[in-house]
Amino acid sequence: MSTDSLPPAFATSRLERRYRLGEAWVPALRGVDLAIGRGELVTVAGPSGSGKSTLLHLLGGLDEPDAGRVFVDGTDLATLGERERTLLRRRRLGFVFQTFNLVPVLSALENVEYPLLLDGRPAGERRDRAAEALAAVGLAARSGHRPDQLSGGERQRVAIARAVVHAPLALLADEPTGNLDSATAAGILDLLLALRRERGTTIVIATHDPALVARSPRRLVLRDGRIESDSAGEAPR
Fold first, then answer.
1. Side-chain half-sphere of 82: how many Cα atoms within 13 Å?
2. Rounded distance between C-alpha atoms, residue 43 and residue 63, angstroms
3. 29: which DSSP letter?
4. What is the mean pLDDT of residues 138-155?
5. Residue 226: is it exposed, middle or buried by C-beta count within 10 angstroms (0-12/13-18/19+)?
6. Is 68 helix (H, G, I), strand (E, B) or coil?
7. CA-to-CA distance for 58 and 60, rounded, in angstroms?
8. Beta carbons of 166 and 117 less than 8 angstroms apart
9. pLDDT in tens, 50-82
């Protein structure tokens, strides 16, 4: 089936979010209208406080807007109860953060297995899918190592494998290269581009990294909670 006949991976309508700071309300997003198609890789850039992380959290159902609507694969998140939202996040979305969030006492393989364990998958299926995901990120030989035995780049690769082990519709990555040197960061982007190309995964990345933005097929820039620009970048490579 052509993806043209399917709803976008993400869509927002007049999205608003604000936070209380002392006696004042500070707007984080102001009337954001956005559509991200299936299989797109999009970077969201902008200065600190521009709303990048807030947008990713709303797209992933980790936070709720003060006004407006968020659609994931055509489903209005406002129509879902908390359990339904949890299942949507667990089965349809993957998340990657700057701090990796790996369980220190578990091996790489066990960390990647963990979302499948939460979802009640059989042990054999968990092991097979986790091993496949680690192989996809080039870490098959490191599957038995704990996080403290891995480099920063390897830990982020484990985090990415964990985020895609259940073959999600989309991956939301908040500053995934923020703690990495430039060469390692470039390798992480190579990996994300390969996941998009080979699996058709939709990928949305909030980032301050100009090198990452420069290689992005589509670039959003947020400023003061609004989309300042939305443009195509160079062809992915």
1. 1
2. 20
3. E
4. 95
5. middle
6. strand
7. 5
8. no
9. 999 999 999 999 999 999 999 999 999 999 999
CATH topology of domain 3-232: Rossmann fold (3.40.50)
Count Cβ atoms within 10 A of the Cβ of residue 79 and give its class: 0-12 exposed, 13-18 middle, 19 or more buried.
exposed
**Segment among 1-5, 20-24, 31-35, 160-164 with least mean pLDDT:** 1-5
Pairing of strands 218-223, 226-232: antiparallel
Q: Residues 50, 35: contact at Cβ < 8 Å?
A: no
Q: How far apart are CA 31 and CA 111, in angstroms?
A: 38
> Where do the domains of the chain lie?
3-232
Tokens of 115: 């979302």
Closest CA to 50 of 170, 179, 185, 208: 208
For residue 3, give the DSSP letter.
G
